[in-house]
Model the fold of this input.
Amino acid sequence: MGVTGEPDRTPTRTDHPPRRRAPHRHPGLLALIFVGGALGTAARAALETASHAAPAGIPWVTLAINVVGSLLLGVLLELLARTGPDTGWRRGARLTLGTGVLGGFTTYSTFAVETVQRMTPDAFVIGLAYAFGSIVLGVAAAALGLTGARRLIAHRSPRRGSEAGR
Done:
């Protein structure tokens, strides 16, 4: 009994709801990322293998992969955000397709290595153009993906008000 004559309300472990596992520690979500990453990496490797390497020029394949990946990530994230909260199937789709497939498909490490390889006195301008162009085109592609998905959803949504008067 407490000083007031009422039972003590000292918090116990049972007073708190059970703690949920953080998403980054959930084995099922990690498996989705792993499988998606394997698929994205395999697709990138196939494209890189099928192309001819550009030893000193612009590495067009890596540039295209990263720009297309940025565009697709913008579309995916906008569509998922516009359809509801990041839970359930939306979280699974974001992690599998966004973090996994597109994370494995796009490649910062190859971009960084290819940029450094071009930072020689003979190809410095090419290296600089490649680095700057990759960043600008990637951001522009992501913005285009977001905007395109937003317009697609707005176009497909039923028009309120325009049909009410008919």
In short: The first helix runs from residue 27 to 50. Residues 161-166 have pLDDT under 50 and may be disordered. The two ends are 71 Å apart (CA to CA).
